[in-house]
Amino acid sequence: MSGTLSLPNNAIGAADVLAEDPTMDVEVPKNNSFFLWQWFCNWTSTSPIMLRAVEKKILSYLKLPYRGYFVDIGPAVGEADKIWTVSMNTDSKEVPLVMLHGLGAGVALWVMNLDSFAKDRPVYAMDVLGFGRSSRPQFGKDALVCEKQFVKSVEEWRREMNISNMILLGHSMGGFIASSYALSYPERVRHLILADPWGFPEKPTDSTNTKQIPLWVRAIARILTPLNPLWALRAAGPFGQWVVQKTRPDIMRKFQQTIEEDINLLPQYIHQCNAQSPSGESAFHSMMQSFGWAKHPMINRIKDVRSDIPITFIYGSRSWIDSSSGEKIKSQRGTNMVDIKIVTGAGHHVYADKPDVFNRYVNETCDMYKVGRLQPAASSPLQFIRESTESDEEHELPNLKSAAETMEIKQQPNVSQGVTSTTSTRATTATTPVVDMGDMNRKL
Length: 444
Prior knowledge:
alpha/beta; two-stranded antiparallel sheet; 17 helices; 32% helix; globular; disordered C terminus; AB_hydrolase_fold; carboxylesterase activity; EC 2.3.1.51
């Protein structure tokens, strides 16, 4: 791990640190000298350095210190893959929480959750391989091959991080990958937390609804099916941010309370994450069937997750994801431990729509594994299995103290070899304004 220390945005000399070498913690894709591809990258107005800059601005709103670095996982899918990782409170001896984001997202979208999770335990959030700042290798074309490649990348990351076992949290597509990982490496998973997971139910065979859709709409949908889900953002080039703004104007509202000084950062971040090579997105396209369903639904396999691994589902009551899959899985696993929580008023992005409720549910689950506490596997399964259908909005998590703003910045010990690190605390002022955009992240 190479060691560069990043100061908080309000500290004297922070700009000098960035100016010294702005590419030291940037994964730059190989230049294949293909003229059309170079032209396309310029047309999309994106770069790894631009993505790095906007991510740092968003994460500067965290109150607790964090470290960001690349973890070299070797030839997991490509020749030399690296996974961008943000970690917090790694000195804690509690069971670590590992977080996998959804389609088209990245670590910065956990900005309203990380402080709460890291208060009492180690937390690791990664950019899934093929997304965000991680390497973007070429995945296979077969659905099961892509799924196994994602799982392999997570396992290689775990091995490099020397994490023996973990609480694994996945949102949307990340929930699908987390479930597949638990099937392949059950000895590494203490608890599986699935936030509005994608890819669980089977695609309905009833075609009565499609008959009500106009013929021309069905024709266009058929033509666009071979394309990656977020192709329009890249096709719009420098106007991609405008496309995000017009298609999903609610993203700024989701994060307004946290990033109130510069709410335009979130749409810019989404654009920068998805305007680059659609490596992971192409793999998702190979795994999907008509976007809303997986070619190999997890509901047919999740029952095979080892019986002593508890599963917690957290659904948004207004989400387009079918929450009935959780009930079916609960019945499939019999007396095995399954917990279903519904967050009233939240949509698919339950972690951002109702962050206080979401954070409390996740922390309640993680707290069962605190040192000295009784493990759920040793208690009665009936005591653990319960269904929560209220939002509990009246119970808010206490705000974390802002002592980190005055904390002395110290370089933390290396995590693994070949990793670049940054450390930051919350910024007290907004930074460079960016182009206004909207929110396209409903189905990510």
